[in-house]
Each structure stands twice: as C-alpha cells, then as structure tokens.
Amino acid sequence: MAEGTALSGQYLGMHLSISDIDVENRDFFRYCGEHNLHLQECTACGLVRYPPTTACPWCTEPESRWVPVEGKGTVHSYGEVHHPLQAAFRDHVPYQVLLVELDHQRAKPSEHEALRFMGNLVTGSGELAPPDLVARVGIGSRVRVVYCDVGEGFAIPQWAIDGDGGPPPWRYAQE
User: Fold this and answer.
1) Computed from CA positions of residues 86, 90, 93, 95, in that sequence, does the dihedral angle turn out positive or negative?
2) Statement: residue 14 has pLDDT above 90
3) How far lies 130's CA from each of 76, 94, 135, 154, 169, in Å?
C-alpha cells in the first residue's frame, strides 16, 4: 500500500478526494481500489470496526491492523430517493440507499451492534440500479459488495443483489 498519496476521482461527474492526512479513510479506499474489502481489527479486543477510526470504539485501543472481510450481508434498512439533492443523480431516480449489516462479526459486541455500511444499490456492473431492481430490494435482502472505480486506485463500495436476493424482503408501504 503506497504511503502519503491523496486519492481523487469522479463519480457521476462529481469530484471526490481523500487527503493524504486522512490516513484511515485513504487506506480503506485504497483497498477498495484493489477490489478488496479490508476493515480495521483492534489489536487489543479483536473486534473489527467500520468506519475507519484512529481508535477502537469499544476499548479505545489505538492500534489496529487491516484484515480482509467478505463483502456479503443483509439489508438492515433502506431509503428510496425520488427527489435528488445532487444534480448528478437526477437521471437515476428512484435510487436506493442501503444500510447493510455484514455477515462478518454479526451480533458482536452485542446483538444490537454490528458492522453496518451505507451504499447505493447498484447492478452487478456497478451502475445505479434501475427502478425495477429497486422495487425488488428491501429489509432482509441479501447483497454483496460491488466496487465502483472512480479514480486510479480508488473505488467506492456499493451493493448489488447477491444471487436471487434471498426471501421476499420487507418493504415500506408504497404511496
């Protein structure tokens, strides 16, 4: 992993950058740029954490190591955006923002805490999901990480349906 280099890229025409002094996020997104999901594991208590931080949120230990994690999980919650605030998303509504609970470290350190990621629902090729796909995903859907390359060595983790998506999901009532 190259040290001390900022990351920059474009997503839907929007400029993205991570400063070279934002070490934890820079390293996380570099792993994503290699299409690998790595998270910080505390050297003291052994718990994996997300988002990247300078210390363990459970035991406050500052030392950690990056460990590979399988990018599969279940939709814990979601939101559908029908009126985008960013012009870059205007042609993609409705799109879905997912809160995904990873399979890794489920119910640790307690049944109410878990590794949860935000990201958009995308197709297997990384494009924002079309409305017919959005309508099929809800709480309980099985998803897997998909990397959207945005710059040299820089990718954003997003979420795609894993296999057939699992059992029919629970969805909020539609108007």
Assistant:
1) negative
2) yes
3) 21, 8, 9, 24, 18
CB atoms within 10 A of CB 61: 13
Question: At residue 75, what is the residue type?
Answer: V
Structure tokens at 135: 């309508």
Strands 116-120 and 142-151: unpaired
DSSP β-ladder status, 48-49 and 38-42? antiparallel
* Burial environment of residue 87 by CB neighbours within 10 A (0 to 12, 13 to 18, 19 or more): exposed
Burial tier of 29 (Cβ tally within 10 Å: 0-12, 13-18, 19+): buried
Residue 168 lies in a domain: no
| CATH code where residue 143 lies | 2.40.50.840
Q: What is the pLDDT of residues 19-53, one digit of tens each?
A: 999 999 999 999 999 999 999 999 999 999 999 99
What's the pLDDT score for residue 113? 87
Domain enclosing residue 15, as ranges: 7-161
On whether residue 169 sits in a domain, the answer given is no
Flag whether 172 is in a domain: no
- Provide the number of structural domains found in the chain: 1
Question: How far apart are the C-alpha atoms of 157 and 145, rounded to whole Å?
Answer: 6
